[in-house]
Design goal:
Blueprint lengths: L9 E4 L6 E9 L3 H8 E2 L14 E7 L5 E10 L10 E8 L1 H13 L3 E2 L4 H8 L5 H12 L3 H11 L2 H25 L10 H19 L2 H9 L1 E6 L6 H11 L5 E4 L6 E7 L2 E7 L1 H4 L10 H10 L2 E7 L6 H9 L5 E6 L17 E4 L8 H11 L17 H23 L4 H19 L5 H8 L7
Parallel strand pairs: 1-7, 8-11, 8-12, 12-13, 13-14
Antiparallel strand pairs: 1-2, 2-6, 3-4, 4-5, 5-6, 9-10, 10-11
Helix pairs in contact: 4-5, 6-7, 6-15, 7-14, 14-15
The structure holds guanosine-5'-diphosphate.
Guanosine-5'-diphosphate binds next to helix 9.
């Protein structure tokens, strides 16, 4: 991450590179307007000296020699009320790869530098437009795979999580004031910082933090989906089940290339449960191919799974071969899926007491798929969030780690008080540490390295 001081003007293509109705080149920084004036002409070929703030203007973009490149709509947004807090210009051209690249080149030739990934958002953060949690939310919105993950991210962008952290911080600041009274007037008879009250407040805040920490599971699952692997001997209906699950999700089906070329991941949202189906080449091989080829890959996927769907053909019953496949999934949370219910079952859930959980389905008719999703959610203790419930949710490891640190510091403070030997100064140190961790969460305290890690995950132009 170069230029953390935001002195130069940056630019990037803000729309995906490809054919589309429009393509947008974004510019941010002190030279934005100057660059626009250099490259913009009215339809009759005249230069334009002033641009109204936040008003679209129709005209042409020309190259350095004055040759027109495309018809465009441009908008100039004067600082500080912009996304980055700097002067911003957007050039909306037709959405062809060559045209947007050419405009970008001309903008750069006029003195702007190509933005690094996430640099616009980083500037918004550095200029105090958003805090770090809101910056992270922007990336989560871009990467949202389901409506619920979008909702959580949007809530975070609107400040839901930031407000919660501020509330916790305020409580700790008040607590610190109590402790400081005891530090400042040790000889006066301020009971060792009103011990009872301090303890009570500490406990209350620790509880609040724990409740927030408990949302991490939901946040992570909403963001990443529950990793589900379908296992079973050939012909029990694994592929059919996979397809049925994907079809059930009428909203979004995305394909995420997995870690290896052979592994495809597809995300489906069934009854509000985001499920990441990890499909191995081995599992997907056609019936006549020897499944053993995929066995190693299957084993690896099984290792990474949150839940394994162990599929059996309920019409045929539980066979010795099923027993052998079952050995592969030992040690994992397994949900027994008895398939082909529509054909009539010989083997039922009630016959499968040794499995912690079981569901009878038909991949053919789709029967039982909602129950299947509910059971998957139950295994990983995921509660699909209600439309109305927009409680803040932790969504990444960074947030979780810092919040855990804050909690630990407060627990240390509490332990010091309970031990009875501690001075208010020592307790204060722990309380300060907790405040620092929370400060890091929202980005009040930060380093270039940390910003680099966070913003490098963004795409260029965001
Ligand atoms: P895989 O080898 O485990 O992936 O199994 P497939 O999905 O290829 O299914 C094997 C055969 O079982 C195919 O002919 C499917 O049409 C059939 N099949 C799969 N699921 C069902 C089901 O729920 N009901 C019925 N009647 N047939 C099914």
């Amino acid at each position: 991450m170069k230029d953390i001081h935001c002195e130069d003007t940056i630019t990037a293509i803000a729309t995906p590179l490809g054919k589309g109705a429009i393509g947008i080149v974004k510019i941010s920084g002190s030279k934005s307007l100057e660059i626009l004036k250099k490259l913009f002409r009215t339809k009759s070929g005249k230069k334009k000296e002033s641009f109204e703030d936040r008003r679209m203007t129709y005209g042409l973009i020309v190259d350095r020699n004055g040759n027109p490149i495309d018809e465009v709509l441009v908008v100039y947004m004067k600082k500080p009320k912009t996304f980055t807090g700097e002067d911003v210009v957007e050039i909306h051209s037709h959405g062809g790869i060559v045209v947007v690249k050419k405009i970008l080149q001309e903008v750069m030739a006029c003195g702007a530098r190509l933005a690094e990934p996430g640099e616009f958002t980083m500037r918004a953060f550095l200029n105090g437009k958003i805090d770090l949690l809101q910056a992270e939310a922007i990336n989560d919105i871009v990467n949202a795979v389901s409506e619920s993950s979008l909702r959580v991210a949007f809530n975070q962008l609107e400040g839901g999580l930031s407000k919660k952290i501020k509330e916790i911080k305020d409580e700790i600041v008040e607590l610190k004031a109590l402790l400081e009274t005891a530090v400042d007037f040790p000889e006066e008879d301020v009971e060792i910082m009103e011990e009872g009250e301090v303890k009570e407040r500490l406990e209350k805040t620790i509880k609040k933090i724990s409740q927030l920490l408990a949302t991490f599971n939901t946040g992570k699952i909403l963001k990443e989906g529950i990793k589900v692997v379908i296992a079973g001997r050939p012909n029990v209906g694994k592929s059919s089940l996979l397809n049925a699950m994907l079809q059930e999700d009428r909203a979004i089906v995305t394909e995420i290339p997995g870690t290896t070329r052979d592994v495809i991941e597809e995300t489906a949202v069934i009854s509000g449960v985001p499920i990441r189906l990890i499909d191995t080449a081995g599992l997907r091989k056609s019936k006549d191919k020897v499944e053993e080829i995929g066995i190693e890959r299957t084993k690896k996927s099984i290792k990474e799974a949150d839940v394994v769907l162990f599929v059996v053909d309920g019409h045929e019953g539980f066979t010795d071969e099923d027993e052998r496949v079952l050995k592969l999934v030992e040690g994992k949370p397994v949900l027994l899926v008895i398939n082909k219910k529509d054909k009539g079952l010989k083997f039922f859930c009630k016959d499968a007491k040794r499995f912690a959980d079981c569901v009878e389905v038909s991949a053919k008719t789709g029967e039982g798929l909602e129950e299947l999703a509910e059971k998957i959610a139950k295994i990983v203790m995921f509660k699909p969030i209600e439309e109305v419930s927009l409680e803040p949710v932790l969504t990444n490891e960074r947030q979780k780690k810092l919040l855990e640190e804050a909690k630990e510091s407060l627990e240390n403070a509490l332990a010091s008080i309970e031990s009875g030997f501690s001075s208010p100064e020592i307790v204060c140190l722990d309380v300060d540490k907790a405040l620092e961790s929370l400060g890091k969460m929202v980005g009040e305290v930060t380093t270039e390295d940390i910003l680099g890690i966070i913003f490098s995950k963004f795409c260029i132009g965001k």
